[in-house]
Structure formats: C-alpha cells, structure tokens
Fold:
Amino acid sequence: MTWWEVVLAAILFYNGFVVVYFFAINTQYLVLMLVGFAKTRKTLRAWRWGDLRWLLQSPLTPPISVIAPAYNEQANIVHSVRSLLMLHYPKFEVVVVNDGSTDATLKILIEEFGLRAVARRVDVVVPCRPIRAVYESREYPTLVVIDKENGGGKADALNAGLSVALYPLFCALDADSVLEEEALLRVVRPFVEEPGLTVASGGVIRIVNGSEVRAGRLVRVQIPREPLVLIQIVEYLRAFFFGRMGWEACNGLLIISGAFGVFDKQTVLSVGGYAPDTLGEDIELVVRLHRRLRDEGRHYRIRFVPDAICWTEAPTTLRVLRGQRNRWQRGLIDTLWRHRAMLGRPRYGVIGLASMPCFLLFEMLGPLVELTGYIMVPFCFLLGLVDPRFFAALLGVVVLYGTLVSITAVLLEDTTFRRHPHLWHLIVLALAGFIENLGYRQVNTWWRTLAFLDYRRGNQAWGDMERRGVGKA
Amino acid sequence: MDINLRDVFSLLMVFLAALLVAVLGLFAFLVLQRAAVNILAKQARRREAVLMPLLHAALTKPVAVQALVRTVRRTDRSVVRDMILRLALDLRGDEAETLVGLYRTLGFLECDLTELRARRWMRRAAAAARLGTLRRPEALPWLRSALADPAVGVRLAAVRAVGETGEHAALTALVSLLGDGSPGVARAAVEVLSLRGREVIEPILAFLRDATTSAARQAAVDVLGFLRAPQAANVLLGLMKEPDVEFRIKVVKAAAAIGDPRFKGIFECLMKDPHWEIRCFATKGLSLLGSPELVPCLRQALEDSHSWVRFYAGLALVEMGPVGRSALLNAVVNGRPSARDIALYVLERAEAVPVIS
Structure:
C-alpha cells in the first residue's frame, strides 16, 4: 500500500465514521424524544382533579424565593416582575437582582414598584460581588430588589439572591421570562410528592416571540414571522423539551435550564452555590449536585416537569444567536472538563455511564465531527472518491432524517400540550424543521466549533442579548 | 469493492426512500390528526354550548333534569362529566347536592365506584379523585378501602378525596396514614388533617402516643401545630426534652404555632438551646404570647448569633408596641452591629424611623 492509498483509506474510513455518527446522533434524539413523550404522557395522566387546589391551600407547600437576575432588562423588567408577583402560589417572595445594569432597569423598578432602600443586613452565604443596596416595597411586600456590582455573570447574581432569599426552596429565573400562572405550583410538585428526596426540579422553556403577552401574562400563543425564531421553536421542542424529559425518564437529567428551575436551597448551599467562573452555571450546578450527592451516597432526585412552562424571548438576529450558542457551548465544554472524573465511572450511575458520555459525544464533540464531515465529504466528491449519486443520496438522508426528528417533536407536542392553536402553525413549524437542515444547522455547527477556540483562549464574554420586549401593559 | 459500494448505495437509496415516506407520512399524520382534533373540539364546544344551559337549568329546576338526560348523547358523556366536575369544584350546599344527584342520575357515580376496583391504578386513582371532587359521603366505604390500596397513587388520591368529604369517621381513618410507608401519602394525610382535622385531635394525640417511627411522630406533631390545638399543649410539653433533635425542632415549632401561655417558661429556657432552629421557634412562640415581661428575653435574643433568631426577636419586639420599640431603639444605640442592623431594619419596616435613602 502506498502512502496515498493509506490517506485515501483513512479519508474513506473517516467518512464512514461521520455517516455512522450522524445516524447515531439523530437516533439518539429520536429515542430520547419517544421516551420523553411516554414519560410526559404518564406524568400528565397522574394529575387528578383538584390536585393544584390542594397544593395551593396546603400548609405543607414549601414557600419559595423566586430569584430573577436582571442585567440591562429595561424593556421587559416591569412586565416580568408583575407576572412574577401574580403567580398562583401560597407563599413566595420575588428577589430581583439588578446585576449592575448600565441602563435604567433599577430606576424603572424603583419608580414602578415604589421601592425604598432598607437597612437589611445581608449575611453572605456564598461569595458574590458587593451588594450596594437592598430595596423593598410598601405596596408589594413580597418584592425585594438587590442592587449589586456587576461581574461574575448570572451565577454571581444568583449567589447574591441566595444570600437574601428567605425560604427553603428557590427558583432561578431569567428576568425576561414569562411564567405561566400555575407554573410554580407545578414545578414544585416533585418536592411535595417526594419530600426530602427531590433536590431540584426544572420546567419547560418555550419561545414567546410572536405570542401575545398582556400585563405579564401570556394570553395567546402565536408563531413569529422570523424564520430564525421559528427554527428555534422546533429546536427547543426537540432538545429542551422531549430530549430532557427523555433523560429525566432515565434518571439522567444533566441540565435544568437557568431560565426556570427550582432548587433546595440548603443542598445548593452545601455544594457552594453557583460557580461564577463558568458560563454554563445551570448545567454546572446540576452536574456538581449529582457528583457531590452521589459521592455522599445520598438518595436524591432531580426532576423535569413537562407541564410547568416558562416562556422566554429568543434571539432574533444571527449576531445575538451566535453569541448565545457560542456561550452555551463554552459552558458545556467547561462543565464536562471540570467534571471529567465522573465520565464512565459506575459510581455515578446513569450520569457517569450514559448522560455525560452522550453529552460529550453528541453535544460537545458533535460540532467538530459535523464540521469535518461538511469539509471531507465535498472534498472526497471533488477528488472523485465518492460517486456524485452517492453524495446526493447521503445529503438527502441527512436532511430527511433531521426533518423526521423535528416533525416528530412537533407532533409529540401537539399530542400532549397542543399549545399552538392553529393547524397552520404546525405546518409552518414542520417546514421550519425541514429548512433548519439547509443552512441553520451548518451555521450553528460553525458557531459551536468556534466556541472551542474561544474556550481555549479563556473568553468569558456573555454576549449581548437584545430584548424587544414581549408584553404590553 | 465495487460490488460492495453498489450494495451500500442501493441500501442508501432504500433508506432514503423509506425516510421520505416516513417524513411525508408523519407530516400527513400531523395535519390529519390535528384536523380531526379541531373538528372534535369544535363539536365538543358546540355540544357544551347546548348542554351548559340545560345543566344550569337542571340545577335550579328539578323538572329540567329529564330534559338534560334526554339530550346527553353517548359521545357527550365525558364532556358532561367534566362540566359537572368543574362546577363541583366551586359549588356548595343545595346546589352541590343537586349536582351530585345529576351525576348519579347520569350514571357517573356508579361508574366511578366501579372504576375504584379497576385493574389499572391510574383509573382507580382518577375515580377516587372524581369522588373527592364531588364530596360524596356515600362513596366513603369505597374510599376508605382505597386508603389501603397497594398503589401509592391511589392512596394519595383517596386521602385527598376523603379530605374533601370532611366526614369525621373518614378523617379518623386518615390518622393511621400519618405513618404510611410512602412519604407522599403521609404528607397528604398531614395536609388534609391540618386543614380539616380539628375534630379528630384526640385520635391524633392517641396516634402520637402509640407511634413507633420518628417520621410518624413528626407527622402527628406537624398536624397538631398546623391545627393550633391547645389540647396538645401538655403532650408537647412532655416531648420537648426528647433526645432526637429533628423531632424536638418539630415539637417546638408546633408549640410556637399554638402559642399557649403554658409554654412561656420552656420557651424562655429554650432561648439558650444550642440549635438555632429551636431558638428561632421559641422566639416565634414568645412573640405570639406578646407579654411585656418577655421584653428582656427578646432583647437578649436580638444579640443571638443566628440571623433568623434576631429577625424574629425584632419582629416580636416591634409588635409589642412602645415597650418593644424602646428595646429596639436601645439595641440601635447600645447593641452589637448585628443587633443594631436588625433593630433598624424592623423599625424601618414598621415605619418607626425615617427611611434610609
């Protein structure tokens, strides 16, 4: 064999690997979605008449501190805080952490809610940047606003909130999110059903762009006009809804979105709170919880609740989306690197043997394999190593398999929650699932690949998130 | 090699065709199922619009019941059942009685009682929950047997259903479930008894005396605290010296909620307890007693090492009026920084001093 033949054989072998990898990643999505769907149905069927009413009036429903970090959120902050104050929950407080915003976030909050600085002593339970002032309101006794110095990202803001939070459970929330009225009651249910066992519980994140929000309440679900957002809706359904539900069914949930999750405060404090030196503070915390609790041999559950829904604004421009995806990828790389000792270790159960290896293979390394595939296959085609018909067929399979997974996600949503009121919404979303494979996926792969370089360079930039504002008063 | 590649290619083409069929099929299914659902939902809405006035008429005029029974088709049954259950959530008194009569006339009650013996636990639990929503005492014998169901979900639904009926005998049956093996069921029993168990305090006290597990005893103490039962004061006083710290915390918490003057002396002693939770609940208990002679003790608690104890001491003092406030002002001037901060904060909350800005 000449060296050229060896190179050709290696190239062909790698192409084969890329094809197998591609099937594996999509099959993984499909299987997780179907498992997640079965679990979702089971969870929804377990709801009984009047369950929520019992939760609402029970003296045992644990009180919650809702912590909402806000950085330059002037467009949404009033609607978001109003929506939080109107939540259906027996006993809760809302802790808004103004993370040194450079816009008028704090000023708007002070004026709108009649806030005044109070001499409340803050016992810092986890280190965070200095807290400049604590504000309370006479009209809204359940609202507390912390003004702190910027730095340390969202994790630092959440840590500051933890120092002020009064209650045994806390809910980490994005300040721009719109929670459904009963979302908090629903997401707390695992804590009530399995007291002492559940340490964290996450809700579903869905995209609010295009929908009608009034006075901080989602009143009508619509779909946006921007194709970029439409594609993200399908993506959220596929990966953040049924995908996570699938992992939950296997007791291997690795992430509770930072946009909406409830945690046992004492347990989080016992592991040191949020890590301010990572961009994926949400996934890092959950993985650290798994690690520490398993090391301690403690029985625990981390749950995902399919009907606790939080609506959030998705990026509408490529620039902002690039920043977001790049940040998520850096957060993932960082978490898997920090906790690499858990990988493949039987003592960490499903987490060490399935969830983390899958996240490593398909989520973290996925962009690298995909990108090299995108380069190698046309390269082989140009060198005449691959038959043009073979190449075209392969391309067709790639696009159709991706579309199949996306349409399945839309169908599963429609057979469980049916949040999109019109038939044409589903048709548009299914088409978005097809279009996603023709450009969006590739661009996303490129952004996520660049995240490796940024991570290597130690880039800790959060990226801009422009808010258009989702609600009308 | 050539043959192999050709084979791979044909395989790929087959797979491509299969995928295409699957995608198109799935898309068609998505559209068709939604169209069908939309049609059914529209029909259900139309039927609901027809049936709702009849249902309301049947609630006010007994003669209208037959009209409703005649109008209900087989396909309407689930719609009507849901309508009745929705109404049952809010109705009380005579209207609720009429509603249940209607539920029975339409055969739903019988159906639910049969469902309580269904093979699948989810169906049994759903039936129990529906009977609970209707608050039917005649379903109690069945619900009481459901309390012993092997499935946790059924026991949970039955506990709440029994709670909805609020019948004395049934609530007594719930007391033993405070020691249920499933923490969820035990918790549900605590929940129900805390809200409806005022008349079964004696059986709860008896359960507390006989219970062997710590979880069961804690559950009973929790209920007594939530019920603010003064009858439990002597029993709780006896339990305050238990060696199990977790249990003692629950006891002090319950005693603090009851706020009986008999606890005054022990609360004062507990202010020196090494466990902050116990000091905290003792402070809360003292705050309920509100006696001016407690001011020195609460002023002392303002200097406590734990912020929650200081906070409740501050709140207690501010609520005591001029005597308490003067103790707080004393803490502002002479207290340690932590006592000064909490005193300032509670005074400010009570708007007793100018706001810091």
User: Anything to note?
Assistant: The first strand of chain A starts at residue 64 and ends at 70. The mean pLDDT of chain A is 89. Chain A touches chain B through 48 residues (CB under 8 Å). The first helix of chain A runs from residue 3 to 45.
